User: Which sequence fits this backbone?
């Protein structure tokens, strides 16, 4: 096995210089640092993670907690975008990622116990029931955490602008002349609460009354429940002229139900999605939706968590808002 001493001898520099070059420390010349790295690569040097962990008292391993009710896993395009950018940035910063769960073979443990078992330096909580006592136990522990779209005291939250996103959607739809606007929302989470409140408030500013029967509950990333909600809306004596969906993937259920009713989008009814996933842009007509910047959220989550891990005494928890963008498609008719 190639050691630092072997690289030192080959390069004709001290062990300290080799260590600094391989660890990216700035107090040596760039040419020397690059030469050491090149020689190390040519010699097939691989860093000893155990020695590194012993020296720094860190595992360089980040836990990821991702649990969604529909069990779509990494097929969930919005969250897969977040998790991929999180992985890329974590690796760039020198960290690996490990998924955290409550089960490990025949053993059952809570999230905190699994995090300790995996020796994670910190955890990004991407999707989960934030009211779960096991989640709260993890967040309130000594382990640094960063949450996505949920705010706890004394921990950093990376937030998609759900309030601003709904404002942009309603303003766009109302600007197209719509006054009968229905909304299908996901399960009761802080994200849903913000979107629904923003929807109602913005409609009120347009002096639009939203009847209770125009507000339907479904689940995120679940076409089946959105199809049922769409059917209920279309069967109303006075159906809406536009339906807002909880996310782009759920809209597929609504689209199928609209077709079963013999209706055409947008001639007979208008629709708007949410998330801005690739699927929304390849549908015909192209879906009008609000794109959440998944890649930016994942990158920021990794950076903030590593900052909390490596500079605990200087770290200040904060809420980081990530704005999105309305993508105008062809699914909202001018009336």
Assistant:
């Amino acid at each position: 096995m190639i050691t630092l001493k072997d690289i030192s001898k080959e390069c004709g520099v001290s062990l300290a210089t080799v260590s600094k070059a391989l660890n990216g420390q700035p107090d040596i010349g760039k040419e020397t640092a690059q030469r050491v790295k090149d020689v190390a690569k040519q010699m097939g040097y691989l860093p000893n993670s155990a020695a590194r962990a012993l020296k720094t008292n860190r595992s360089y391993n980040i836990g990821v907690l991702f649990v969604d009710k529909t069990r779509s896993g990494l097929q969930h395009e919005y969250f897969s975008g977040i998790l991929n950018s999180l992985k890329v940035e974590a690796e760039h910063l020198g960290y690996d990622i490990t998924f955290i769960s409550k089960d490990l073979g025949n053993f059952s443990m809570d999230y905190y116990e699994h995090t300790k078992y995996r020796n994670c330096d910190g955890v990004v909580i991407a999707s989960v029931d934030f009211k779960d006592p096991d989640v709260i136990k993890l967040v309130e522990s000594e382990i640094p955490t960063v949450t996505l779209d949920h705010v706890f005291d004394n921990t950093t939250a990376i937030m998609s602008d759900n309030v601003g996103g709904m404002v942009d959607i309603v303003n766009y739809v109302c600007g197209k002349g719509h006054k009968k606007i229905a909304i299908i929302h996901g399960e009761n989470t802080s994200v849903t609460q913000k979107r629904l409140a923003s929807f109602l408030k913005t409609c009120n500013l347009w002096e639009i009354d939203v009847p209770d029967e125009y507000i339907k509950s479904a689940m995120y990333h679940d076409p089946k429940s959105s199809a049922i909600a769409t059917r209920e809306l279309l069967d109303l004596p006075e159906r809406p002229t536009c339906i807002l969906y909880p996310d782009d993937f759920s809209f597929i259920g609504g689209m199928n139900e609209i077709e079963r009713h013999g209706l055409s989008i947008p001639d007979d009814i208008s629709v708007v999605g949410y998330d801005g996933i690739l699927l929304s842009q390849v549908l015909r007509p192209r879906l009008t939706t609000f794109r959440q910047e998944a890649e930016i959220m994942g990158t920021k989550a990794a950076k903030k968590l590593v900052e909390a891990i490596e500079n605990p005494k200087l770290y200040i928890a904060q809420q980081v808002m990530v704005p999105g963008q309305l993508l105008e498609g062809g699914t909202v008719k001018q009336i």
User: Anything to note?
Assistant: The chain is about 45% helix and 15% strand.
